Amino acid sequence: MVVLTKAGRCADPVSAASDMAAVASGVEVLVTSAATGEGIEVLAAVLSGTVVLLGPSGVGKFTLGN
């Protein structure tokens, strides 16, 4: 699963998710926002076992972990 964080900071998160889905063929893409709660329930429902959060500084890994 690819999780796009900080949806509220993106001008068009639907388009961003579509672009990512085109690159990550066959992988579910989920748009989330810790500020609004968008996608958080779905993310919590699919997480189990070992989880790896990858991405550059400032993309929301720590926020999702909390």
Please report the number of helical segments.
3
Give the H and E element order: EHEHH
Helix content estimate: 25-40%
**Total beta strand runs:** 2
pLDDT average, as an integer? 92
Structural class: alpha+beta
Widest beta sheet: strand line-up: 1-2
Shape: globular
What is the C-alpha radius of gyration, as a whole number of Å?
11 Å
* Percent of sequence in beta strands: 5-15%
Largest sheet: 2 strands, parallel
The residue ranges in which pLDDT falls below 50 over 5 or more consecutive positions are none
| Gap between N and C termini | 18 Å
Summarize this, please?
With 66 residues, the protein is α+β, with helices and mostly antiparallel strands. It is built from three helices and two strands; from the N terminus they run E-H-E-H-H.
